[in-house]
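Notebook entry, structure prediction.
Reason for the run: the old model in the group folder had no record of what sequence produced it. Starting over properly, with the input documented here first.
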Amino acid sequence: MKTDVTTLDAGKAGSVDLNEAIYGLEPRLDIIHRMVRYQRMKRMAGTHHTQDRSEVSVTGKKVYKQKGTGGARHGNKAVTLWRGGGKSFGPKPRSHAIGMPKKVRALALRHALSAKAKAGDIVVLDKASSADGKTSALRGKLEKLDLNNALIIDGATVEESFAKAARNIPNIDVLPIQGINVYDILRRKKLVLTKAAVTALNDRFDGAKVPAEQSK
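New structure, fully documented this time:
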């Protein structure tokens, strides 16, 4: 799959081959959905907490005498029946993370990349660099490339001046190749890969093959 390589100045820098086994799959929404759910649930803090009857701070004295009132029998005010009492079966701190096989996670990333490629929303940059680290200059270059809502993936490291220039631009995210993930790919309109990122993805999925039913 041949794709043109562009520069930040909107110039041409040749072309690059995108591996069909990574970018040429027929996107499966069920796998992508599973991965997004896996990521979002793993990010949940799980710090919710309600007090049960052993934790509330109330008197332990019997509310009123057992007999002779004409009302129901009651003990102390920590029970869930009373206002200010404990909560029955309330949420407690816990992990919301769910399990997902490593191979399925890798497959989901390939399907997310293929979905972007199929929609024509992948842009390959020669390199992501900024000479002066100025936000205004970088914003102007991205606007020329029609990148108003994009995830930019660089190689093993992101140039510090480029990251500094991009961090104040709304709807622009910059990540090293180690941080690429399905959720962030889908939440931005465009996916921008540097040549270093393309090479890193090829190495990461080295040996990946196009399914037989899609290679015909």
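Summary: The first strand starts at residue 2 and ends at 6.
The old model has been moved to the deprecated folder.
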